[in-house]
Amino acid sequence: MRQHTRHVLIAICCSVGIVAQMPLGAHHSFAAEFDSTKVVTLNGVVTKVEWTNPHTYFHVDVTDDQGKVVNWAVEGGAPNALYRAGWKPTSLKVGDRVTIVASRAKDGSNLANATSFSLPDGRCLFAGSSGPNGDATTNCRQGGR
Amino acid sequence: MTRDARRGAVAAALLVVAVLSTNATAQWQGYPTPGIPRKADGTFDASAPVPRAADGKPDLSGIWMAPRIRVDLSQGMKRGDAVPFTAEGKRIFDERRATNSKDDPGARCLPTGIPVRATLQTPFKLLQTPGVTAILYESRTQFRQILTDGRPLPKEVDWPAWQGFSVGRWDGETFVVETMGFNGKVWLDQVGTPASDALKITERFQRRDYGHMDLEMIIEDRKMYSRPWSTFAELLFQPDTELLEYICEENERDSARMVGK
Questions:
Q1: Which domain covers residue B18, as residue numbers?
Q2: Beta strands in chain B (DSSP E)
Q3: Interface contact B120-A25, CB threshold 8 A
Q4: Is the minimum CB–CB distance between B101 and chain A shorter than 8 Å?
Q5: What is the spatial distance between Cα A5 and Cα B38, in angstroms, rounded to a whole number?
Q6: What class is the A2-144 domain?
Q7: Residue B234 falls within a domain, yes or no?
Q8: For residue A145, is pLDDT > 70?
Q9: Contacts of B67 in chain A (CB under 8 A)
Q10: Domain check: are B88 and B167 in the same one?
């Protein structure tokens, strides 16, 4: 039931997002750096936030199946795109738990390009990705799965 | 109270609510743009007539943005038309496609091509004044000046530039901007549509009504293309917003990680 409520909240969040026109402003070729077929879901705790151009970065500690903690760097959209979609520089803070759906970097490092951010309170935040998985109309729903 | 007065009062009240509900820290976003036409409910009236400058010409001033992102100019061409590459143009384009545009100067925070800026889906502000029209692009905090003081395009360019040199004139209701004097380094778009120092771009801006503008961009470059070709974009007026800062050089880490394929 709780899970269901969360999905409903995510759906509401996303339908609001669809109405708003969201600038993206791709800064570089997505495919030169990321692989949209290698989607990863990162459930972890924020360790560092970089509210910077041309991309934001959210560093997250993720505990794997063996209990090992791995720090991932997740690239988000530019601050202007996120801000217009309702973000503030403080929307995700160090210590926050977050679930991020993202496309992995082609260089194999623990780097990924975010498709969506889902917060425990049901909020889902538009990621501003210019990649093929980054459609503003679907990315929050993917994050809710 | 007449119906018009009532309607006006309602609109004014809604506007006050809109102002008051704007977060103090978000002073640039959601603040109602003054002087633009609004419907009875206070929302922007995009179908209102084209505003006019003092000289009677359409006033194109305002913040504009494409309704959707497009980083490939060929997607804005007429159905059945294709980019008329020369052999050299095709060779360069194919090479860039084969490496997923990893060498795009734009990814290194250098200027993006003028044509793709119209459809990057970041807003830009057009400021039309007598003698010069300026375009302020939010993306990369770039600007262009289009001189409308009657001067011709330079006959010879002794300093090739990333953005070239632009002059503007009116062709009836259409604002025509011609730009040449490019340095041959810029990519026209993110997929790598090439340009040489022989590039000339003609932009034709036609404001349909208050909220909509059509833009045709004609690309000429005898080294890269066998004939001039056109790509089209629709632009939407952006009410109740302002340009935001975008300093690309701040934390650019992508270019070093681009592996291409």
A1: 1-45
A2: 62-65, 124-129, 132-137, 142-147, 165-171, 174-180, 200-207, 212-220, 229-237
A3: yes
A4: yes
A5: 38
A6: mainly beta
A7: yes
A8: no
A9: 21
A10: yes
Mean pLDDT of B70-98: 97
ipTM for the whole predicted complex goes beyond 0.90: no
Is residue A67 packed enough to be buried (19+ CB in 10 Å), middle (13-18) or exposed (0-12)? Answer: exposed
How many Å lie between the alpha carbon of A100 and the closest alpha carbon of chain B? Answer: 20
Q: B140 CB contacts (<8 Å, ≥6 apart)?
A: B109, B111, B112, B246, B248
- DSSP assignments along A42-75, one per residue: EEEEEEEEE--SS-EEEEEEEE-TTS-EEEEEEE
The answer to whether B167 and B151 have CB atoms below 8 angstroms apart is yes
Rounded to a whole number, what is the distance in Å from the CA of A54 to chain B's nearest CA? 5
The pLDDT tens digits of the residues spanning B11-70 come to 544 444 444 444 444 567 889 999 999 999 999 999 999 999 999 999 999 999 999 889
Q: How many independent structural domains does chain B possess?
A: 2
Tens-digit pLDDT profile for residues A106-143 = 999 999 999 888 888 888 877 777 677 654 444 554 43
pLDDT more than 70, % of chain A:
72
Pairing of strands B165-171, B142-147: parallel
Q: Please report the residues numbered 197 through 226 in chain B whose beta carbons come closer than 8 angstroms to any beta carbon of chain A.
A: none
Q: How far apart are the CA of B174 and the nearest CA of chain A, in angstroms? A: 27
Q: Tell if the CB–CB gap between B101 and A29 is shorter than 8 Å.
A: yes
**Residue B213: per-residue pLDDT:** 98
How far is the C-alpha of A100 from the C-alpha of A61, rounded, in Å?
12
